Amino acid sequence: MESSSALIKRKVTLKGLDCANCALKIEDGVSKLDGISSCSVNYVNQSMTMEFDPSRESEIMASARKKVKALEPDIQFIGQIKPSAQKSSSQQHAGQNGGKADLHHDHGSGHSPHSHALAKGDVDHDHKHDHADDDGYGHSHDHGEQGVRTMVLRLIAGLAIGAAAMLLSLNTNVELLLFIASYLIVGGDIVLRAVKNIIRGQVFDEYFLMSIATIGAFVIGEYPEGVAVMLFYQVGELFQSIAVNRSRKSISSLLDLRPDYANLKVGDEIKRVSPEEVNIGDRIIVRPGERVPLDGIVVEGTSAMDTSALTGESVPREVAAGEDVLSGFINKNGVLTIEVAKTFGDSTVAKILDLVENASSKKADTEKFITKFARYYTPVVVIIALLLAVLPPLLFSGETFSDWVYRALVFLVISCPCALVVSIPLGFFGGIGAASKNGVLVKGSNYLEGLNDVKYVVFDKTGTLTKGSFKVNAIVTAGEWTQEDILLYAAYAEIHSTHPIAQSIREAYGLELDEHRISDYNEISGHGIQVTFENSSVLAGNAKLMQSEGIPFTEPKEIGTIVHLAINKRYAGYIVIADEVKEDSANAIRLLKKLGVKRVVMLTGDNKAVGEEIGRRLGVDEVHAELLPQHKVEELEKLDAAKSPKEKIIFVGDGINDTPVLARADIGVAMGGLGSDAAIEAADIVIMTDEPSKLSSAIQIAKKTRGIVWQNILFALLVKGLFLLLGAFGIATMWEAVIADVGVSLIAVLNAMRVLKLKPDLNV
């Protein structure tokens, strides 16, 4: 096994992969190749992600291509890697720092970026497609429109010939020939595939099960059932494939952020070009109804922007010259001229698409369990069927081989694990898509499943529960001065300061300041400012400044940062400046507690009085104030030591100065990640807006997703268990067996598709 610090990640497309069993087979085969640290195949978006040593890149990619071709010759392996000797310095840097490089291609799907920004130090490469191994198709689960028509015609022809054999009074040999012709038209490709797989040493799959069951039916003289089972199986496969493809399109439409073009301004001309062709500093025009193709700054025009595709917010956002806009926003009315700030590969849209599409490579424990279950389940079922066919006639007198062989064949038909291996990954992938539609990016189905076990939520204060912007909350006067006087004198005293508190005072004053009105400006370190304003001596600062100057002052009752003011050595009053609490912070904490969170903790570097006051107002269980980043990690570790192993801790921060704590928590959540590279890289989940209540939305979607996934598991196992018993006791026939198998798979897929429509309730 290679050292994790040296590994890079590569993603390739497996075109034509629409079979969950084939995906498991490829994942198992490729993961055993020498040099590959991990391999994850996602049949929902037809991709494979591998991790390996970058120095063996060309060799490992060639081995992976060869293995895929050997296992599934009809699947196209798309993606070619440059020779490892040409590795860029940035890629080497990523490897040295434990980063991972990722490869992503666009295959004309209309929703995948050509290139993208990569999480956790990933490095992007622009590689060309290699179509050298783009083979033609044999039987594939991927039924396009033409494939559907061909399959329907085959099924009708096979059904007609089979019906003729059943209904017409024919010679026995002619009848047999008609049944064989019907069988070959309907399922010849399945038998051929089973034979090819057996030659390659791949015995136990659904092709083998169906071939043995139906050929066995012919051997014991049950010709109509042999044809009917294959017919129903093919109908079921067709419907299942259509359902999977439809759900794939639904997921894609949730993430249909990718802009098709950009209107590039060149001199007085406007050219329609691909977003990838636009460079930083170029100007683009976005007309009403168009999607913003690249991140940038508005230089001309005003408009309302629909941000719902990125944030889940329904209220349009007003933008004007000088304001940032992100790719994926939709322009509602005005014409905007935008100066491009990032290339398409680094744009917000590219990052979001990449994160969601790659999320399936981090599998939930439920998915891993089903993968292992399916690997051992089919061989066990085949052995049980063999024993069922052979032992009763040998052990009990009066029992016939033909009767028990038939029961064993029924047993085989029912046993196919398709319902589980298809619907479970589909459910999690849909859950990730539903979360992204609600403005929450989940970087893996393991994190989505982990949200179900969250019992402790730790919030950073500034920028997470509060807005992170200081504002004048109160002005308290003393003597003859008015509030307007105090604000005027304080604004001029703070005229040259760059401190956020000074800025908040100037903003509250609101008028233009004329620096000619002041003189003798003197900043007193750690205390405040001394200045002369229009012949009046002004002191503005903290309590220490008042004490050092011997000026009696009023002790404030309010919580916040206090700026005391003295004019001509007489106390004039004070200004209270505080960080504003976000509108939905209190609701967010209330919702979390309703969803079963045991303790909500707030960590802050702010002073104790401020921290405790905000904690009290929001209903937080614990407040730890005056903390440095390393102290936040220590507080998190104390919680971790106290919780049970199954319980999980979430840390929610702004993703910029909280990287150590985000990494230490079971699930790190970055707040307000819209356009923030640091947030997207540091966290496992990214909330795209500044709303803490989105965390409860993510937990609700996770709980509903798990509910649907477990409905499918229990439903499939119960129905199959029941029919296996009925088949073993000779009650169920092959007709019922195949309808049960096909029906369970279809219902499970359709149930999994419900995940896409999940909507959180913000009034739980």
UniProtKB/TrEMBL annotation:
Domain HMA, residue spans: 8-76
Domain of life: Bacteria
Biased composition (Polar residues): 83-95
Pfam families: E1-E2_ATPase (PF00122), HMA (PF00403), Hydrolase (PF00702)
Matches recorded under Gene3D superfamilies: 3.30.70.100, Calcium-transporting ATPase, cytoplasmic domain N (3.40.1110.10), Calcium-transporting ATPase, cytoplasmic transduction domain A (2.70.150.10), HAD superfamily/HAD-like (3.40.50.1000)
CDD domains referenced in this protein's UniProt entry, alphabetically: HMA, P-type_ATPase-Cd_Zn_Co_like
Positions of transmembrane segments: 151-170, 176-192, 376-396, 408-429, 713-732
Biased composition (Basic and acidic residues): 119-143
Chain spans, region Disordered: 83-143
PROSITE patterns the record matches: ATPASE_E1_E2 (PS00154), HMA_1 (PS01047), HMA_2 (PS50846)
Single GO MF descriptor: ATP binding
Catalytic activity: Zn(2+)(in) + ATP + H2O = Zn(2+)(out) + ADP + phosphate + H(+); Cd(2+)(in) + ATP + H2O = Cd(2+)(out) + ADP + phosphate + H(+)
Any one annotated GO CC term: plasma membrane
Membrane topology designation: Multi-pass membrane protein
InterPro entries the record matches: ATPase_P-typ_cyto_dom_N (IPR023299), ATPase_P-typ_P_site (IPR018303), ATPase_P-typ_TM_dom_sf (IPR023298), ATPase_P-typ_transduc_dom_A_sf (IPR008250), ATPase_P-type_domA (IPR059000), Cation_Transport_ATPase_IB (IPR051014), HAD-like_sf (IPR036412), HAD_sf (IPR023214)
Protein keywords: ATP-binding, Cadmium, Cell membrane, Ion transport, Magnesium, Membrane, Metal-binding, Nucleotide-binding, Phosphoprotein, Translocase, Transmembrane, Transmembrane helix, Transport, Zinc
Protein's cellular compartments: Cell membrane
Chief place where the protein resides: membrane
PANTHER family: CADMIUM/ZINC-TRANSPORTING ATPASE HMA2-RELATED (PTHR48085), CADMIUM_ZINC-TRANSPORTING ATPASE HMA4-RELATED (PTHR48085:SF5)
Family affiliation: Belongs to the cation transport ATPase (P-type) (TC 3.A.3) family. Type IB subfamily.
Name the UniProt record assigns to this protein: Cd2+/Zn2+-exporting ATPase
